[in-house]
Amino acid sequence: MSTTPDPGPSNLDDEDYPAYTMGRAAELLGTTPAFLRSLDEAKLIVPQRSQGGHRRYSRYQLRLAARARELVDQGTALDAACRIIILEDQLAEARRINDQQSTPD
Fold it and tell me: What integer is the mean pLDDT of 12-38?
């Protein structure tokens, strides 16, 4: 019998937990904070805010930002890149739902 208290659900496994500051997110992506702000302005990524008002990013948002950077680096305009990513994300979600419905219980 363990006397260690149960820590509850782990935020480490939560894809949507806003764990990364803007500076750390930019560093991980190899981009600038200005690029991340532009994704916020384009409404592709709307980061949560800390109590002090600082942007905080999740792993899911970092994946979207990395895809945006990839498209922009290939010469795609930012607004077009954002639209492509939104459509890709919607397609992936539709496929996930379709797969769940197709699987016998």
Answer: 92
In the chain, the amino acid numbered 5 is: P
Q: Which tokens in the block code for residue 10?
A: 């782990």
Indicate the range of 4-18, 23-37, 83-97 predicted with least confidence.
4-18
Copy the structure tokens of residue 65.
């930002």
**Cβ contacts of 72-76, under 8 Å, gap ≥ 24:** none
Count H helices and E strands in the chain, helices first.
4, 3
| Alpha carbon distance 91, 48 (integer Å) | 25
Q: What is the pLDDT of residues 59-76, one digit of tens each?
A: 999 999 999 999 999 999
Q: 3-class SS at 37?
A: helix
The answer to whether 78 and 38 have CB atoms below 8 angstroms apart is yes
